[in-house]
Fold this sequence. Notes:
Blueprint: H1 3-35, E1 50-56, H2 69-75, E2 83-85, E3 91-93, E4 96-103, E5 106-111, H3 125-137, E6 151-158, E7 161-166, E8 205-210, E9 214-219, E10 234-240, H4 243-251, E11 257-260, H5 266-269, E12 274-289, H6 300-307, H7 312-319, E13 324-326, H8 348-357, E14 361-363, E15 366-371, E16 374-377, E17 380-385, H9 389-405, E18 409-414, H10 416-425, E19 430-436, H11 444-447, H12 458-467, H13 473-490, E20 493-506, E21 509-510, E22 528-529
Parallel strand pairs: 1-10, 17-18, 17-19
Antiparallel strand pairs: 2-3, 4-5, 5-7, 6-7, 8-9, 9-10, 11-20, 12-19, 12-20, 13-20, 14-15, 15-16, 21-22
Amino acid sequence: MSGNNFFKYIFAVVVIFLVGYTIYVIFQNKTDMYNYNPDQTSTLTNIQTDLRLAIADMDTINPLLTNNRNVIEITKMIYEPLVTLSENYELQYRLAEEVGKTDDLTYIVKLRKGVLWEDKTNFTAYDVKFTMDLIINNNISKVYNENLRYVSRWEVIDDNTIKIYLSEPVPFFEYNLTFPIMSERYYEGQDFVTTDKIAIGTGMFKISEMSSNVIKLIPNDLYWDTSRKPMATEININLYKTMGEVYSAFKNGEIDILSLQANNIEEYIGSLGYRKTEYKSREYEFLAFNTASNEVLSDPNTRKALSLVIDKNSLITSCVGKGYVSSNFSLDMGNWLYTRDLNVMQDLEQANQILTSIGWEKINGLWQRRIEGRLQRLEFSLTIDSNNPTRVGVAENIKQQFANFGVPVSILYYSSDNYIKALNNREYECILTGMQVGYSPNLNTFFGEQNLANYHNQEVTEIMNVINNTSDKNLLYEKYGRLYDIYLEEVPYIGLYRNTDIIVCNQSLVGNITANTFNIYHNIEQWYRQ
Length: 530
């Protein structure tokens, strides 16, 4: 290679390197820009560190006395529980450091050390006892009474330990320890219900000002969890008399985030200028077969075929409308142990194949079979509460869908009292019912000894015994997975639908919004406005 060619070669290599490096820098800067997650040390000038929330028709800011949903949501940032729940309803320790189960009726709660109240006094087991006394003995909280329904007594072991005794076993009892803890010393000599003292907390934020129009929160500089230092320097909670005023304020850009249950929100806030996220909520509707009621419904293959007849999406559109989604299992609102989609869609061809394979045939448009010389028809009765107009419409829709498939369904219209009696005594062939699903992954209603389907399967019984007596995550994943397999094959229930809630956010709000029915303010320490 000549001298000139050598220098040309070196020059070309340098140029290629510089061009490549320039492209890399440009790409990296863009990547950094898109992935940028500013924190409280950010110097960006367009970040605003005040957040704006709202409460309509506030009763009290005291978390044990309020019945206001907005207050309950907001006070989770100020007053902490022993345990909380993550975005997927998994248990997380807060003021408790450990919850140990010594037997079916006894729990030892070890408390976190070094936690301070806003007045710089120490958080102790006596604060937990004081709070439980208020909830159980004084019966002051409509929201948290149910959490401690089966607690018979409790005692302080030392400053950092409390023992809780139950009157009967409660699967996943730890999930009930989500009530906010109040300071015993702060309320010494006070009537908790009538005092005008504003409760102090141990949470990430504290109340700095309170008037008839606004409650101002600022970061709690004594907060024990230093890994969650918030970006927001203040949160202004605007107080309104009605939700109509809240909607107007949101449309005017005065509120950053709202939690709504209204299905037709466009009617109130329009359809532009905000982000909307729907998430599955707790009201779950389903059919329960009484598997012990007759020989037709006792057959799992027949029940599986019946589960393939209903078009749930058509049912929702016709009978309940917006704000509902199809659902085939109680945990599908995002629970960490709901590990795969169990929704069953309409498949009439497969339903035909299953029934034909087990001896049913269509005669004159109806499914029938011969049993010991007699002709048996595939039919059943459906019990409903006649005073529930939505369920009446749903039942009649289901009846029509089954009739189109060749399965007659007779609807039994019961009064509310007789419906409840039939439900409690399992006096039905099939019943249309529903429930507010709990936060824990407890499935005793569906698979326990007194389950709604009178359903018995030895393997399921063994699985439930393991589930109710272990906290081993890997074992729980395994057992729930097997339970799902059996559920899809034996079909003691047909899930229908559940309701949804809605979060709407102002376009200026930046952050990871991962709301669920337990807490809409997950990750609020990372939120800001721009």
